Amino acid sequence: MKARQGGFTLIELLIAMAVSAVIAVLAYQAIAVAVTSYEVQRQQQQQLAQLQRALGWLEQDVMQMAPRAVLDNWGSVLPAFSLLNGRMEFTRIALYPTPYAAGGLLRVAYYIEEDNLIRETWPVLDRAPDTQGQRQRLLMSVSDLTLRVRDAQGEWVSDWPRDATQTALLPTSVEWALSSQQFGALRRIFNGPQAFVDE
Predict the structure, then answer these.
(1) Are the CB atoms for 110 and 133 separated by under 8 Å?
(2) Taking all residues of the chain, what is their mean pLDDT, rounded to a whole number?
């Protein structure tokens, strides 16, 4: 009489395959969740870094405001600080000599273009007709940007300068209120150099 050979029956093999398939599916789902969480976290970190960089640029620019009016491409005088229709443009002290800073000063502007927050700089203060600015996108998906400035009497206004003849006058502070898809509503106040003089 022959001895029975050891091994798995067809039922046992099917059960083992079913268990292996379940384990494989669970493992795949766990890996997919981990990868998705990592990508979401990485994207959020990038967006936060963009926001911090934008706030850093704005704070640094506002703190370095300088009372120097400039000429635009058509020879008209632009005040040292200008705020009109949500566009802010002003002269600032350049921290270090750069290709985009003339005489230690730099002209910068902030505005919204196609839902992007743009920072623009110019290679010279007094522009020629063909002078082009260099634009840098700081934030995307910006639905609204509201800018206000505070004068020496503590009053907040949406247009500057209030007197067109005072081309060298600077506000003491800048209020920045922004709405974006990623961060919702944000509001910050940055003090200019005059705010510390008046204290």
Answers:
(1) no
(2) 85
For residue 52, the Cα-to-chain-centroid distance in whole angstroms is 7
Q: Where are the alpha helices (DSSP H) in the chain?
A: 10-63, 193-198
CB atoms inside a 10 Å sphere around CB 46? 11
Which whole-number Å values give the CA distances from 51 to 38, 61, 131, 134, 178, in the listed order? 20, 15, 29, 20, 11
Under 8 Å between Cβ of 88 and 80: no
pLDDT recorded at residue 162: 83
- Which residue's structure tokens are 């067809």? 10
Tracing tokens 């927050």 back to the chain, one arrives at: 117
* Percent of the chain clearing pLDDT 90 (strictly above): 46
C-alpha distances out from residue 46 to 7, 39, 40, 56, 140, Å:
56, 10, 10, 15, 12
- What is the average per-residue pLDDT within 6-30? 80
d(CA 66, CA 95): 12
Whole-structure pTM over 0.85, yes or no?
Answer: no
CATH code reported for the domain at 57-198: 3.10.610.10
